[in-house]
Amino acid sequence: MTWVTHESSTVYSNPWIEVREDRITGPGGDGIYGVVTMRHAAVFVVAIDEEERVCLVTLERYTTGRSIEVPAGGSDGEDAIVAARRELLEETGFVADEWVHLGTMNALNGIADAPEHVFLARGLARADDPAHAQAEEGIAAVSWVPLAEVLSMIADGRITDGETVAAITYAGIRLGRFG
């Protein structure tokens, strides 16, 4: 059965998101469905240094508290690679020479239209003039962790951010570490 939208109305909107309520007919019959639409795509950066360590940031999320993640952020409407370069610099003070787009994924696709681009960054160097905004981003720490340890952190629950788990998976597949 396909979903049929009978009516749609925006119930909340700001510069970053729109929330709408749709009157629908779906597999379970008639009902309402709430949908969050992100105005701009997000980017996630798996930065790996010459020692095969992954860059992780520890930050305080308003919604969930302390979180260990890969550098990430919104695209603000510009090309995803431009946003990825900016987010890596802002959150870590690093720049990269090599960039590979690993894939596009969707966050919380049961309730949201939120495209996300995942990049692998290599050839890393500290920026000459690191105009990063760690305090503004709520970043408490930047760390470099071997990939095997990152996988252990996912397995034991120290890393719980779903997008970070997916981004690490994309990178691990690309690098031939899984399978």
UniProtKB/TrEMBL annotation:
Record bears the keyword Hydrolase: yes
Protein name as catalogued: NUDIX hydrolase
GO biological process, one term: ribose phosphate metabolic process
Ranges of residues in domain Nudix hydrolase: 38-167
Keyword set includes Hydrolase: yes
GO molecular-function term, one example from the UniProt record: hydrolase activity
GO cellular component, one term: cytosol
Top-rank lineage group of the source organism: Bacteria
Gene3D superfamilies hit by this protein: Nucleoside Triphosphate Pyrophosphohydrolase
Cofactor: Mg(2+)
Listed InterPro entries: NUDIX_hydrolase-like_dom_sf, NUDIX_hydrolase_dom
Transmembrane parts of this sequence: none
Protein keywords: Hydrolase
